[in-house]
């Protein structure tokens, strides 16, 4: 560049680099207020959830359990949608300006944000702007009035009257005469290039920042919304609150969205998928894991990598424990490796107590609050891992990453994170045999490391982390 303008610089919020996130699916975290339970609510945790089941989770339940998150060490909550919607997942928004009645009221949410901020916990909401629910007044007007509806241009409609044929289940359909998310007829796609749609959605973005002081938006199906909309969205958020975090849901390479004028980061599935493919699925050689990680880091600016959102599981994927075939030693190894990577980690609610589950809806089980059913040993591991991350945020966020590839053929993963003369080294044994490694001048870090000699014995699925 002949001249580097300040306005063109990529600016990552500093607070994000120090954050360990916790994702909450509100309907399944905790039922704190029985008076707002939806009809036909099921007893808490009474069954593996189905697509249309309700168990009564709400915002008061989150308030009631904030001390749990504080004890765990969490300082950021990512909420799946909380706005008025028909489904249990709330990705089919009816009204973006209202809290879903089964979750509570605006007063409850304001109290939740206040209580989070008292505990130095940031709050991120889910912005579902690619599509809207078919129970929304806008879509109902289209169904009633067809091409004469004042909302006809709000959606991508191919033929009037709008219609579809039932598919195999509630979320499926065929012969749909309008564009939708995936194949569900209940989520008609919004035309975000339409001036009225854009004005409406941008006012939503500003409202929840100005009125409730949220700290971040997670942007659902972000790669299916036009870039011009996201640029305007970024301007509105930046004008409303300094150091605001915008997280896009994009599952593939994302350079086009990460130039500083749209998102701060993306959900880093492309990065963590390689980790799971190497450690758990054994589908990658170690050399390819290193290559894939380096390729991902080289795609983006260093400032971007520092705030990328590293998720091993979520409401959209199978639980990490299930992916690891319920092998908790393997799960711990994968978690520890991920927490040492550039970017910020996120715990999917209940992972800390050993909740398992396959693809949606099984991954959305009720949180375990019965202490007799909680894996307290796994909880202690998560707590130690979060502590390690937060105590070393500076080096783990900003430090360089250097691989030792001399033992690649033995599937012994060794790498260092370095910053200003400090080093943190991780050693991970992904082979089927015990391995011994020589180290000099090692220092025990936290209580994730236990060895007394320079020659360290590492079992399969074992790992050590130390500083020097």
TrEMBL record:
InterPro entries, per the entry: A-amylase-like (IPR013777), GH (IPR017853), GH13_cat_dom (IPR006047), O16G_dom_2 (IPR045857)
Coiled coil: none
Positions of the Glycosyl hydrolase family 13 catalytic domain: 23-389
TM helices/strands, residue ranges: none
Pfam families hit by this protein: Alpha-amylase
Gene Ontology MF terms: alpha-amylase activity; calcium ion binding
The entry's keywords: Calcium, Carbohydrate metabolism, Glycosidase, Hydrolase, Metal-binding
Cofactor field: Ca(2+)
One Gene Ontology biological process: carbohydrate metabolic process
Classification via CDD domains: AmyAc_CMD
Annotated PANTHER family: ALPHA-AMYLASE FAMILY MEMBER, MALTODEXTRIN GLUCOSIDASE
Record-stated family: Belongs to the glycosyl hydrolase 13 family.
Name the record gives this protein: Glycosyl hydrolase family 13 catalytic domain-containing protein
Organism, as annotated: Companilactobacillus farciminis
């Amino acid at each position: 560049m002949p001249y580097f303008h300040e306005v063109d610089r990529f600016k990552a919020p500093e607070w994000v680099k120090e954050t360990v996130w916790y994702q909450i699916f509100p309907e399944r975290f905790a039922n704190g207020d029985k008076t707002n339970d939806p009809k036909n609510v099921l007893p808490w945790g009474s069954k593996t959830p189905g697509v249309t089941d309700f168990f009564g989770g709400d915002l008061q339940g989150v308030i009631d359990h904030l001390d749990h998150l504080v004890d765990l060490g969490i300082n950021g909550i990512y909420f799946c949608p909380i706005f008025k919607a028909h489904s249990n997942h709330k990705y089919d928004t009816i009204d973006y300006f209202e809290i879903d009645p089964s979750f509570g009221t605006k007063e409850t949410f304001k109290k939740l944000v206040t209580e989070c901020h008292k505990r130095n916990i940031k709050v991120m909401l889910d912005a579902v702007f690619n599509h809207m629910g078919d129970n929304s007044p806008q879509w109902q007007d289209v169904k009633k009035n067809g091409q004469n509806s004042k909302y006809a241009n709000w959606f991508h409609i191919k033929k009037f009257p709008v219609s579809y044929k039932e598919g195999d289940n509630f979320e499926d359909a065929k012969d749909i005469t309008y564009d939708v998310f995936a194949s569900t007829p209940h989520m008609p796609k919004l035309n975000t290039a339409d001036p009225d749609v854009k004005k409406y959605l941008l006012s939503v973005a500003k409202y929840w920042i100005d009125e409730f002081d949220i700290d971040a938006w997670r942007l659902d199906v972000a790669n299916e919304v036009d870039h011009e909309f996201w640029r305007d969205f970024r301007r509105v958020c930046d004008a409303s609150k300094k150091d605001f975090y915008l997280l896009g849901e994009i599952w593939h390479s994302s350079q086009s969205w990460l130039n500083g004028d749209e998102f701060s980061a993306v959900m880093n599935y492309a990065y963590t998928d390689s980790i799971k493919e190497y450690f758990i699925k054994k589908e990658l050689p170690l050399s390819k894991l290193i290559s894939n990680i380096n390729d991902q880091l080289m795609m983006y600016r260093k400032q971007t990598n520092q705030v990328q959102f590293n998720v091993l599981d979520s409401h959209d994927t199978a639980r990490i424990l299930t992916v690891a075939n319920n092998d908790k030693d393997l799960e711990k190894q994968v978690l520890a490796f991920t927490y040492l990577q550039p970017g910020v980690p996120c715990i999917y609610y209940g992972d800390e107590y050993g909740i398992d589950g396959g693809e949606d809806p099984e991954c959305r089980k009720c949180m375990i609050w019965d202490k007799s059913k909680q894996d307290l040993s796994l909880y202690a591991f998560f707590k130690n891992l979060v502590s390690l991350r937060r105590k070393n945020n500076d080096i783990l966020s900003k430090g360089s990453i250097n691989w030792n590839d001399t033992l690649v053929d033995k599937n012994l993963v060794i790498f260092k994170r370095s910053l200003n003369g400090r080093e943190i080294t991780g050693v991970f044994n992904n082979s089927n045999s015990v391995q011994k490694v020589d180290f000099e001048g090692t220092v025990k870090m936290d209580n994730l490391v236990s060895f007394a000699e320079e020659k360290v014995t590492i079992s399969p699925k074992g790992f050590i982390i130390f500083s020097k």
